[in-house]
Amino acid sequence: MRALFVNGRRFYRFLGRTFPFLHLGWIANLREVRWEGHQLIIAGWAYTRGTGYSDAPQIELYLKRRGTRVRIDAVVEPVINLDAAARARGAEHDYSNTGFVATFDLAALRDQSPHARRPWTSTIRVTGENRKFWGRFRNVNIFGSPAVMSARELSPRVLAVPRWDQRLGLVVEHHTVDAVATNVLTEGNALEIAVETDDGRTLDSAQLEGLGQTEWTMAAKPGTTALAGTIPEPVAIVDEVTGRVLAPTWRMATRSGRKTFPVYGTPGEVLAQPRVAGDPLVRTAHDGQLEVIHVPQHIEVRSAELEREPVIGVRLRGACARDMSSTTLVFSSKLHSLPVQVTDKGDGRFEAFVPLRVSAWGGPELPAARGGYALVAQNSEGTFRTFVSQEFAENDLVLHELAEFRLRFALNRTDQFRLGVSRPRRRDELGSYQQAGLFNAYRAHTYVPRDAVYFESFFGKNATCNPRALDREIAQRFPDMPRYWAVDDLSIAVPEGATPVVIGSKEWWDARGSCRYVVTNEWLRTRFLKRPYQTVLQTWHGSMYKKIGLDRSGMSKRHLNLVRAERANWDYFISQNAPGTEVISHAYDFKDEGILETGYPRNDELHDVDEERVAAIRARLGVGDKKLIMYAPTWREPKSGEVDFLDLESLSAALGDDCVILLRGHVRTLEKSQSGEGVLDVGTYPQVSELLLVADALITDYSSMMFDFSVTGKPMVFFTPDIDDYSNAKVRGVYFDLAELAPGPVVRTQAEVEQQLRDLDAIHDSNADKYVAWQKMFNHHDDGKASQRVVDIIFADK
Asked: Which of 391, 381, 392, 400 is nearest to 417 (CA)?
């Protein structure tokens, strides 16, 4: 299969080199766009995948209107662009020398006739290594200045409008303007707009339309060029794909007789700045058209700068409507948020500071987690978007390379400020080409073995589970032994005394190669090469209900070979119980002497519960003395998205004000925070064992958490609306009949869940015998000493 893939790729690239007009393997990325006078300046990179350029290729760019021979050539300067290499999918070549900055002098359009339906399209030609390739831009940076390409007035009522076209790439429209707004008056929701037409015609009315918004009409005021109307009640809109909050926005089209034409403004101009919270914003959109926007409070970022002392963070300055006392700002990603300290400077100005080291759930202050954080505002009306000035969007979107992370000032697909936080990799660690070089060095290097431990939990996404419990035992018994934790980024809190190593860094590769002991709860994947001196302990991450490894049906030969190759890395495999030992022996073809049937180290702390610790955990969660019901569904196959069979807010309401639902999604399904009324999303809480300590009951489906929570003896409800599909052997298959063995009610509807949870004592009493049998079968080794037993075996020679 691998050979077929490689040969197919080679043939594909051969076709691309032989017939360049097919554009096979063609890469052309538009990264930056800005104006300087009438000069349109763009930056990006272009190459053909599979072609390595020993010297920077010659790059030509030009604009051409369909049906004519006239073209406008750009002045092109080759530049080194590290993003070109960092974002390349293939690892064969370093594409950083394929970057360019190109300048189009669009004053040349003054000699051409404007034509709204025939835009100027861009073409790129790349010459190098005795080959020529050409094509259009295929990709665009939706988080940079291309997201807000603005119109420019070339002469009175004649615009050049760069925009992105999904089929044609970068195009420049060149057209005249029939109607221009010259003045705007606002009074609450009342709006009056003066409009001038190119021929002085009389306007009858104007229609305003917006995505998901109520259409409304502005009527002409007799004896004037103005139109007047009242903005209707806005409708809150959230983009279902991106989760972005969309500001209610209307575009304006005027009518004169039978003719309808859009109203434009002066490019870059704000015609009506909100004076107080709730006033409409009337401005010229990026394509030159007039738009009316409703936001409860207008926030526009005009500058941002990184501050390193005394606290690392970003200082924002900008404009706002007066009185921000009822408005808060926050940088929000799908799972995390960064608080913003706001100062109202008066006269419609604000200043804000966002610290980039934060404490999550009462833990230590650590660098922000990687992700994209959009700046949103919040008040009693809800969450709404903010804006950036056009000047800021075109000139101040910069990258800061820091020891703790790489920080990029960016946009959130539109003129909304976004902080992009990524792993703190050095330049020689960026992208697949550099990573291939580091892997080759790791593979060839002869390391000096070190008496040290390398830990990895869920591919570095956290520092928890069985590996963390073993870290604690090792640190107590061998305090001088170095301990390294693989982390996705430096926001992950590793145990005290341990050293985090960021995945993909040189230090990460070195730790993988030199540590004598490797402890993981997941696959180490194909780029781990076990040395003869290394002992690899596979702790796994839960006892097995669904089938795993070689037991899964319908697996391809390639996947089965990957299972066997990964299994060959492991010397030991921890089993929680006797049924788990049997599963491991055939699912991973493991011999009995390698299986450590010790119980799970992560469950040690569920014994001898310290009430003071429980109180401290509740305080960090902010739940007081309320009853806590944890909902912990597992992921689904073939899909790995959110599991939302339960309406948690409805469930919380049914159980009363003295109850809080703790939502703990699977590590594969953590896509966005889902906190709500009576619901607390604890998906990012670092230690799940602490949640098990404080939860009064558990709702789960097929999650291995059922085997851990039963150590506590507390009630469980199994909500399994899709059990027939989930247990289907053609999908995945399971090892036992859950309804027969479950130590709690197995139900399929929300009503049944609500009914069961109204009396937790009844759940316990009616399932007492099955609970005892379950504990004897699955928890017979979970006595609080599993970590000790594992370390005794792994470090027997110490």
From this structure: 392
